[in-house]
Structures are given as C-alpha cells and as structure tokens.
Amino acid sequence: MEDCLFCKGKEDKEKIVLENEYAFVMFDEFPVNKGHMLFMTKRHVKDFFGTTTEEKNAIFELIEKAKEILDKKYSPDGYNIGMNCGEAAGQSVMHVHIHLIPRYVGDVKNPRGGVRGIIPEKQNY
Length: 125
Hints:
Elements: H1 5-9, E1 16-19, E2 23-27, E3 37-41, H2 53-74, E4 78-82, E5 97-103, H3 120-123
Antiparallel strand pairs: 1-2, 2-3, 3-5, 4-5
C-alpha cells in the first residue's frame, strides 16, 4: 500500500537491521527502551492473524537473530515480545508488526505481570 508507513519502510535499506524473504526488522523510531525493535512482514497485511505460516516463521527467525544482537550490544535483563491486533488493542499502524522490547532491571518500579500491564489494574495479581 502506497500510504503504509511500514510498506515504505521496507524500501529504506539504511534503517533495516535484519531481513529475510518474508520479513524485515528496524529499530522503533519511538522506543520504549534502548534497543526496541519492530518486526514487519514485507507483504502488506493488517495484523498477525492475516499472516501466512511462512511469514510467522520468518518473523520468529528474525526475533532470535535480533535477540543475539541486542544481547551483545545492550545486555538487557529480559525482553517483552508483543503485538497489537486491531484499534481496540492499540494498533495504530495497520500493518502487522511485532515489538521486541529489551527490559532492564529498574526500568519500571514493579515489572511483575509484564504485558498484563496493558490493563493496569490487572497487572499485579
């Protein structure tokens, strides 16, 4: 799609960190933490549920490679992997993308519950 931010992004080879036949990786332009990366399909597809098995496998292959890079460069203490599917879930760019967010001891007061923090009152259980 010509107005899709991520479809345009796949053409910017200087920003691409990793890629394979079906997917590519860039650092997030609005990072949550140092080393925050985004994984997108090369084919325009709205969300994770529209991806093919090959695209899913390609993304997860790149996540493994990206983790190795981030481990060496930043030595994070943990990771969150997440995606938003649909506007109600917080998706703002309607092209599938997965976040790999390095986590560091002390980056939040209490990390217990991790991704459950999307609904703050459900985070601590």
